[in-house]
């Protein structure tokens, strides 16, 4: 039986979400498989890693346009191999893990690991080096310059970018984003919003300060509203106060997102890699209210170019788009729903698991 090592990092939820999805897919396809999922950054850098991680998340959420300069700087680089030579502590920890676990396949959902694996083991490494690209369309060069054996991408548009970046077509596999296989467990055909109130889910993972105002605006519409606030108890109280005596379903951190997305008609949220790919898997049209320049632009572009939703960056725009979506017999929503259903690949993690077993 093969051993599969999955490596991730906490710099953006997309990396962790992809890693968990691959692990969950393997658990269903081959429950006896020996699988280990690790984030070596906190293990290596300790408190410093948490400081950097929080600074990164704060930057992309509060000043998303500033991140564009860093993203573009990375995209222009050609010496990634040399730069990762400096990560001596990380390589040391990864080397120890490889010696102990002896994996047949290493799956990386964070772009640093394929370089480190190559530096530690060289060309005769004895295990496959697989990169799961979590960017969509605006794929950073740090991904496709990596010395991986295979690149797993979410869609054909991203596959084209990776191929144009110099990766041979036989190394690129388009399975979809490895969302939780739980998305396969829920019916994809949600009732049309005729005669019943449309269901809207607002996932607050950026712009928390303006969220209560948006909730107040949305509750003026004839909709059923669900709001997720993560682990932010202060935000929960603010949303409850904004709702007053009007009914709103509020969730903290939850593992029920597959069910919630499959039950709702529209998602309001930021264009994060995990969020966009999960809404596609659920075939739930999206109104994007926050875009991090650079890395999230491709996610937003995918939704807009396929007419699977829209970008609305102000509360007034979001309100207007929700209103328009369900006006005139929900014509706009029907169009979005038809288009996003064509992109949906809820079995992606299962297909990836089967591929990993085959190599």
Please name the defining characteristics of this protein.
single chain, alpha/beta, Rossmann fold, 2 domains, six-stranded parallel beta sheet, 17 helices, 12 strands, globular
Mind explaining what this structure looks like?
It is built from 17 helices and twelve strands. It has 359 residues and is α/β, with parallel strands linked by helices. It folds into two domains: 3-180 and 347-358, Glycogen Phosphorylase B (Rossmann fold, 3-Layer(aba) Sandwich), CATH 3.40.50.2000; 189-343, Glycogen Phosphorylase B (Rossmann fold, 3-Layer(aba) Sandwich). The strands form two sheets. Strands 2-1-3-4-5-6 form a six-stranded parallel sheet, sandwiched between helices. Strands 9-8-7-10-11-12 form a six-stranded parallel sheet, sandwiched between helices. β7, α10 (211-218) and β8 form a beta-alpha-beta unit. α3 packs across α4 (64-76). It is globular, with a radius of gyration of 21 Å.
